[in-house]
Structure formats: C-alpha cells, structure tokens
Design a protein that fits this description.
The structure holds 2 protein chains of 2 kinds. By secondary structure, chain A is of the alpha/beta class. In chain A, helix 3 crosses helix 4 and helix 3 packs across helix 6. In chain A, 40% of the residues lie in helices and 22% in strands. Chain A starts with 10 loop residues before the first strand and ends with a helix. Chain B is of the alpha/beta class. Chain B has 4 domains: 218 residues, Thiamin diphosphate (ThDP)-binding fold, Pyr/PP domains (Rossmann fold, 3-Layer(aba) Sandwich), CATH 3.40.50.970; 97 residues, 3-Layer(aba) Sandwich (Rossmann fold); 162 residues, Thiamin diphosphate (ThDP)-binding fold, Pyr/PP domains (Rossmann fold); 53 residues, Alpha-Beta Plaits, CATH 3.30.70. In chain B, 35% of the residues lie in helices and 19% in strands. Chain B is built from 20 helices and 21 strands. Chain B has a 6-stranded parallel β-sheet with strand order 3-2-4-5-7-6. In chain B, strands 13-14-15-17-16 form a 5-stranded parallel β-sheet, with helices on both faces. A 4-stranded mixed β-sheet of chain B has the order 9-11-10-12, with helices on both faces. In chain B, helix 7 links the parallel strand 6 and strand 7. Chain B starts with a strand and ends with a strand. Classes of the chains: A alpha/beta, B alpha/beta. At the A-B interface, helix 1 and strand 2 of A face strand 8, helix 11 and helix 14 of B. Strand 2 of chain A pairs antiparallel with strand 8 of chain B, so a sheet runs across the interface.
Chain lengths: 167, 573
C-alpha cells in the first residue's frame, strides 16, 4: 500500500459508529494529537440526533494545509468503525489502497474483555501505528484529556498500537 | 491573553471572536446547529450572556444593549431568525449605537431542522450586510469585522454560518486582545421610535447606507480573488468555497466573505480574468441570481442541487453538469432514549387513539413508527393553535395538543391564551421533562436556572396555565400509566379547556437507574407489546426478545405493559 505524505496532501480518517459510544471523543483525541505535531487539522462531524442512538460520523483531516472539512467521496485513507452493525454503511468510502481497521474491532473486543470503555482507546492505539504522529503526542493528549483511568487508557492504547504495528 | 494555539468549532470561534470584539451582551434561544455559541459565551463571567425564552426576545434584549452603547449579539438557527424577523426588519431602519451582529446558523441537509431555508436571502430583503465565513478560523476574525462594519455603517450585520462551519473544528492561532466599545446610551427618538414620521426618513437613509456598503463590499478584503489557472474560475461563499478549492486546487477563486451587498465590479473584473466561471453554492441560487441580474455570464447548478448540502465531490459533479444523484446513504433512525419520560405518555395517547398535534422537541420522535402517536409538527409553538383549528372544525374528533416545557414557554403560551380567549375546549398536554432536551440539555425559565446556573425566578407552568385561562391543570407522573390514562380520558370527556402537565425529568439529566429487568423466555408469548414501545434497550435475537442491561434504565414501563408478566426484575446478587 502506498502511504500518503501529509506534508504533501492531507490524510483523511473517518470515525463512525452510534451515539453515546465515544466516536466523537476518539476523533477529537486523534485531531489533538495531529495538532500537537504541528499539523493543520480540520474535524467535521454529524451528530444531529447522536444522543438518541442515531448514526454518528466524524472526519479528521490533517496535513500542512487543509481546505475542506469533508474529503472527496471514496478517499478515506483510514477507516475506524467502532460499531460492527454500522460497518456496511460507510465501508465503501475507503480509497483504493486505503487501510480499513475493521478487522481490528473484533481483536479490540477480545483484548478489552469486560472493560468495554477502553475499546476506543485500543482502537486509537491501532490507528496510531498507521499514522505519522509521534507516540509522545498521542500519550500527551490521552493524559490531558482522559483524566479518569489514565494508566489503563495508556496501557490499552499501547496494546492496540503494538497490535497495529504487527501488520 | 495574547497568542494562543486553539482547536475550535465554528460556533466556539464566533464566541471567542465576539469576546475579542468586546461584546458585552449576548442572547439566544438554543437551536442546533447554533447552540454552542451562547454556551461558550456563557463561560465568560465578564459579560451578560443569556438564554432568552425565544429568538425575538433574544434579538430585542441584545438590541437594547446596543442602544445602551455596548456591543451585542443575538444568535439562532435558521428557523429561529423567522421568529426574530419583526425586530430585524425595523432595526435595519433604526441602525445601531454600538455594534450589533445577528448570527444565524443554516442547516443544509437538515441534520436537525424542519426545513433548509437559505438565510442569505434575508440580507437583501432586510437591506443589511451579510458576512459569511468559510471556516472556524475565518469565523473568529469575521465576527470582529462584522462589529466594525455595524458601527461604521450604522446598521445591524447578519453573520451566516452553516452546520459544516458551526460544527467543524479547526486548529489555528489567535492573538486575543479584548477591545472595548463604550458609547453613551443613545437618546435619539428619530432613530429608535419608528413611527411613520421617523421611519420614512430612516428608510431613505437605509437606502443610502446600503449603497455605501456596496462600495465597501467592492473594496473589502472579505471578498477575495485568487488568480491561478485562468481556464476555470469559481465564485462561491461559505464552506462551498472550500469544497471548490478541494476539488480544483489549481483553479482561480473569488470567495465572497461579504456576498451582500454584491460586489459587482469585483465580480466583473474576476469574470474577465477567467475563461469559464462556475457558481458553487448550497441551497438557493443566491449568487447565481445576482450574476444573472448583472448580466455576468456564469455556469450555475442544475436545480436538483438546491436541496441538501454540498461536498468536494459534489463540486465535480456540478462542473460536469450532472444532476444531483438521489442520496441513498441510510442512517440509523433516532429513537427516544431508554427511560425517556415521553415514551409512557405516547403509549397512553396511542392507546386512546387520539389525533395529536405535536411540536418541536425530542417528543417529535413520537411521530415515527412504531410509537406513531403524533400527527402534526411544523414550527415552535404550532401545536396549540393547530389543535384549536382542528378541534373547532372537527367537533367529533378526539384531538389533543402535545408541547414540551421549553417550547411552551417559547411560543406556546400565546397559543394557549388565544385558545382560551376564543372558547376552545379540549386537552393540551405539556410534556415537562424539565430541560430543553433536544439541543443537548439547556436550562429554561421552568427550571429556574440561567445559562450560568444561577437562580433568580422560577416560572410555574401550573400558575401560568391557570392565568392563561385553562379550566383545569393537573400534574401527573407519566410512568403512572393507569393514572395518566384515566386522567386523559376524564379530561377529554369534559366540555372544558384542560391542561395536563406530564412531569418527569429527562433521562439525560437524571441518570439514576431503577431495578434491572430481563425477559423470561418461558413466559414470553412474543406478543411484541414491549417492542412497540420502541425502546433502544429491547431487541430481538435468535427469535427471543431480550433487554440490553447496559442500556436499560430500569424505568419499568415494559414490565407494566407486559400482559404475561414475562418481564421481571433481576434479583440483586
């Protein structure tokens, strides 16, 4: 797979799932990590009726300069689906040669077991292994934004990051 | 505060930009996608930021602050501005003392609105300047420009956002310095008392002001041309400009940050420099019509593009003269939350087979299958007048109105007063979940708490209904479904105007849980009575009905409606 260089053109990441799942928080953390590395970041979200269990999606784009908050159709570099039943809805948005992290969702469920609240952190760890953002920036953002269970979040993030790196 | 790296949404950026502009008074009624503007301004203790009961009141209170010599703003969603149109039209005549900016957030694609009206058209209608940022970073600076323009040209300024500007977050750097405008209270009846004798000369003056603004628009850097590849040029405004840049990075662009008054000379000059000119805009052909009016040759969109929002790919399709393809993307249907107090109330209304006029709020979801207990919804406060019209024309029909606590205060009270005054009989139900829920849980006069959580006065819904002319006002807990049903039946039979306040707090506010429930597969007869409640916690799996214990709040409604006692409380271990 040919990776895009965010110095030349923005990377497009799509997070999606259902309301109340932390989709928007996961996207926010990713955006903040990219920002910590000095990138220009835009994050767009659709959350109209999110609280009521409706569909939620968030696009994160980062690079030297980002114009549109929405990417071109079918031009997602990294897909992060956080809810299996929602997967078919947007899976075709992946660009040819892009990376779909869906196969990691089951691994994530297995890895966190009963600690379901760390599912997104694990998936962010997986995602991080595919992005040119420093580990230090990710951990800094996790520490400042996830005040509760800081150590567990760090551990599950690194576990996911390790899993993602073994591709 | 100085230089700071920020990551702000368009709404937060507008609020921070307004703070930099020295805004002292801000008022709004919550409405997606504009709500966060006031929520952000409410975090600054140095200014008066408030939830008003409706957009007209918000606009007028803020305008009072502007007459008093302090910069002020009113914010709302597109349909909210309709409510504030009355003061908007005439304050354009009056003009301002300190700067005044009306901020409106349109919702192309209707993510959470009942229409997708294009507020840009309000600017020429009211004869006020229109400012349109494309991104949060621009919003931060443009709102400051808007205040300056307002004072320089003695006019209210309309700042228009769309969902994709309001709810996009962007990283950028700001250099925050709060400016201060403190003028004297303006004692000038010729400006602020709009009797015909004063309004006539103000209208003449307004026409002069808008002409002066036209010159300003021609000169202003808000309208910016970038000449690159001359074979293709785009004219656009708002987020559409960024979609065009994404789709055709090499092209030439004229981005109108101030689309009205329309900078004709600048547009003509740009037209001369590019071989082909495309108009890229969402919703109405606003720019396209301006171009046509001036005889400027440009390619517009096929009319199918007037519905819904655009995207970078949509720009490519517009350029290749395609029609909009029908949108096929299916989203999950929104549901009332588990434990939502509207559910038992709708259960009763449906059971009794009433024709229900509804209103704007979470409870509008009661119209969808399988609850299907609500039959009209148009705009804020319409439930009670619709109910009046229907019940007076169809005497035999069992009709009731349903309205939320916040919507009742917004524009429902006047409907009740009018219904009572005109001898209307029948039943109005106030679904009081003690919060403005649909927009994410804002306070309102019935909670007695302000935007900052302070408490001055608490409105009594009971007393105001009596004062408005209701013959009876009952308060009932909707979870007591038998009592609710008996009460609705009783009041429907009487020849009187009755109000029932169905009162139970929103589950997003009171998150306490009752006993956990499960469905006993031995006893369950699969009658689907529980599924008909449309609770997200009840689902079907492997031909069995089950309860998701993470989602279930233990409200017990399903247990109450089950005829076979198949739903039981889980014993604590």
């Amino acid at each position: 797979m040919k990776r895009k260089d965010p110095e030349k053109e923005p990377l497009n990441i799509l997070f999606y799932g259902v309301g109340g799942q932390g989709v928007l928080t996961a996207a926010e953390l990713c955006a903040l990590a990219a920002m910590a590395d000095g990138y220009h970041v835009k994050k767009s979200e659709v959350k109209g009726m999110a609280q009521r269990g409706g569909s939620v999606e968030s696009y994160v784009r980062f690079g030297r300069k980002v114009q549109s908050p929405l990417p071109m159709d079918k031009d997602i570099d990294l897909m992060v689906c956080l809810y299996a039943q929602e997967y078919p809805r947007l899976k075709d948005e992946l660009r040819p040669g892009g990376t779909d992290l869906f196969p990691y969702l089951e691994k994530a469920h297995y890895a966190v077991g009963k600690n379901k609240i760390f599912l997104n952190t694990y998936m962010l760890g997986v995602l991080s292994s595919f992005l040119p953002i420093k580990e230090k920036s990710w951990l800094g953002v996790l520490e400042s934004k996830l005040k509760k269970s800081g150590q567990e979040n760090r551990d599950f993030f690194l576990l996911g990051r390790k899993e993602g790196a073994e591709k | 505060m100085g230089r700071e790296k920020v990551f702000l949404s368009g709404n937060e950026a507008v609020a921070r930009g307004a703070m930099a502009a020295g805004v002292c008074f801000a008022s709004a009624y919550p409405g997606t996608p504009s709500t966060e503007i006031l929520e952000t301004l409410g975090t600054f203790p140095e200014i008066e930021a408030q939830w008003a009961v409706n957009e007209k009141v918000a606009y007028e209170a803020a305008f009072g602050a502007c007459i008093a010599g302090r910069r002020a703003l009113a914010a709302c969603k597109q349909v909210g501005l309709n409510v504030a149109m009355d003061p908007l039209m005439t304050t354009a005549y009056s003009g301002v003392n300190a700067g005044f900016v009306a901020i409106v957030a349109d919702d192309p694609g209707m993510f959470s609105s009942q229409n997708e009206q294009d507020t840009r058209r309000v600017a020429p209608y009211a004869k006020i300047p229109l400012i349109e940022p494309s991104s949060p970073a621009q919003a931060y600076y443009y709102v400051q420009e808007a205040f300056k323009i307002s004072e320089q040209f003695d006019i209210p300024v309309l700042l228009r956002l769309t969902t994709r500007v309001s709810h996009t977050k962007e990283s950028f750097e700001i250099d925050f310095r709060r400016s201060c405008v403190d003028k004297k209270l303006d004692k000038n009846p010729r400006k602020y008392v709009m009797i015909p004798a004063h309004a006539r000369p103000r209208h003449v003056d307004l026409e002069k002001r808008i002409l002066a603004l036209k010159d300003f628009s021609e000169q202003s850097d808000l309208n910016l041309a970038q000449i690159n590849d001359r074979s293709i040029g785009f004219i656009s405004s708002g987020v559409s400009a960024l979609y065009a840049k994404e789709a055709y990075p090499q092209a030439s662009f004229l981005t109108l940050g101030m689309p009205f008054p329309f900078p004709v000379k600048k547009v003509k000059e740009f037209r001369r420099k590019v071989r082909k000119l495309y108009v890229i805009e969402e919703l109405d052909p606003f720019l396209e019509e301006m171009l046509k009016q001036e005889g400027i040759d440009a390619c517009g969109r096929k009319s199918s593009w007037r519905c819904g929002e655009l995207s970078p790919s949509a720009v490519k399709e517009i350029v290749s003269r395609k029609e909009r393809s029908p949108q096929s993307r299916k989203s999950r249907r929104p549901l009332l939350c588990p434990g939502c107090p509207h559910r038992p109330a709708f259960y009763v209304l449906k059971k009794l087979g009433l024709y229900v006029t509804g209103d704007i709020g979470c409870y509008t979801l009661g119209a969808l299958q399988p609850l299907a207990a609500l039959h009209t919804q148009t705009c804020m406060g319409s439930s009670i007048p619709f109910f009046e019209g229907i019940s007076k024309m169809r005497k035999g029909e069992k009709v009731a109105a349903v309205i939320g606590d916040s919507t009742f205060i917004h524009t429902g009270i006047s409907g009740l007063v009018s219904a009572a005054y005109n001898g209307t009989k029948g039943l109005i139900i106030i679904m009081d979940n003690s919060i403005t829920a649909m927009t994410g849980g804002q306070q309102n006069p019935a909670t007695g708490l302000t935007l900052q959580g302070k408490s001055f006065k608490k409105l009594s819904l009971e007393k105001i209904c009596v004062a408005a002319g209701a013959d009876s006002v009952d308060v009932v807990n909707p979870y007591d479904i038998e009592k609710m049903e008996d009460l609705v039946k009783l009041r429907m039979q009487q020849d009187a105007l009755s109000v029932i306040i169905s009162r139970y707090p929103c589950k997003m506010i009171d998150r306490s849980k009752g006993p956990l429930l499960y469905i006993d597969p031995e006893k369950c007869k699969k009658c689907r009575q529980c599924l008909a409640l449309d609770c997200p916690a009840i689902y079907e799996e492997d031909f069995c009905f089950k309860i998701n214990e993470l989602l279930c709040t233990g409200c017990g409604l399903c247990k109450n409606v089950c005829k076979f006692e198949a739903i039981r409380e889980r014993r604590k271990q």
